[in-house]
Amino acid sequence: MIRRTTIQKELVFDAVRQLHNHPTADEVYELLHSTHPNISKGTVYRNLNRLAAEGKIRKLEIPDGPDRFDHICTNHYHIHCCKCGRAFDVDMEEVSGLIDKVKDKQGFDFLDYDIIFKGICPDCQKIHAAESEQ
Amino acid sequence: MIRRTTIQKELVFDAVRQLHNHPTADEVYELLHSTHPNISKGTVYRNLNRLAAEGKIRKLEIPDGPDRFDHICTNHYHIHCCKCGRAFDVDMEEVSGLIDKVKDKQGFDFLDYDIIFKGICPDCQKIHAAESEQ
DNA sequence: ATACATGCAAAGAATTTGCAGCTTG
DNA sequence: CAAGCTGCAAATTCTTTGCATGTAT
Predict the structure, then answer these.
(1) Chain A: nearest CA to B32, how far in angstroms?
(2) A64 secondary structure, DSSP code
(3) pLDDT (tens digit, 9 = 90+) per residue, A31-55?
(4) B49 Cβ contact list (under 8 Å, min separation 6)
(5) Does residue B81 come out as left (phi exceeding 0), alpha (psi in the -120 to 50 range) or beta?
(6) Of B101, B102, B120, which is closest to A109 when you measure between CB atoms?
(7) Measuring CA to CA, which residue among A112, A115, A21, A8 is closest to residue A51?
(8) Confidence label for A100 from pLDDT (cuts 50, 70 and 90)
(9) Closest nucleotide relative to residue B39's CA, C1' based
(10) Which residue stretches of chain B have pLDDT < 50?
(11) A82 contacts on B by Cβ (under 8 Å)
């Protein structure tokens, strides 16, 4: 199975890099659709998954919401806003050696781990404050 | 809004405790449906979410798969099998003070975090080994 | 040429929701 | 009896997939 270079795939890759705020597949589609009305959502999904499989972008599987895609491939953590669902980068050193701290691995093959922070982003704090004032 | 005690809610709670392996909503429904054929899936979902909101059970939001529910409410981590999608408890001490390690909180209100390990469970290792032998 | 990719629309999986009728407090 | 809850089915949301056609190598 040989991967081909297509215009659509390059467009999807460029869009993820351009929309540096962890866009969803739909946000990528909307951006591309404005300049390339013929692109289909299926193609956007397929290329996002292919690019992630190739390691060119990173798929962030956000609980309770659509997947998001990240142009930065170095390991870093994310915080997920419980209100609006957006994902943001967390400025923190990588926590290493966590797998070694596991006591009983029960025959499991530990491959990786991810730390997902949850919180409320500044924008949603403002919205909440405004609503409380009423 | 006053919460009422209903037969269905108690059944859902009991089922999550009985199925101690982090069942999905569907697994809870299947168990209950066998003894209570009239219970509806909507009710199972509603009660799982209510119980989680009340802190009586815990909702595990598994990337790329249905949510799972945990009867244990003390903080502990999980490992998610990439092959079968099941979730298992990880025997590890709680990592404390992680939120304090974040350098620039950018006005974010950090509430919580979860560490999700990924790996392959013993069952799936066996299946894979058996398939390779062919 | 021939595999792989696309666009489209339909299917799929997981979850939520509208509503009439039933229950709990 | 009034606020909440249930069962049912339809709707929603996000994502994948089947297929005929198009395109890169």
Answers:
(1) 25
(2) T
(3) 999 999 999 999 999 999 999 999 9
(4) B59
(5) beta
(6) B120
(7) A8
(8) very high
(9) D7
(10) 134
(11) 111
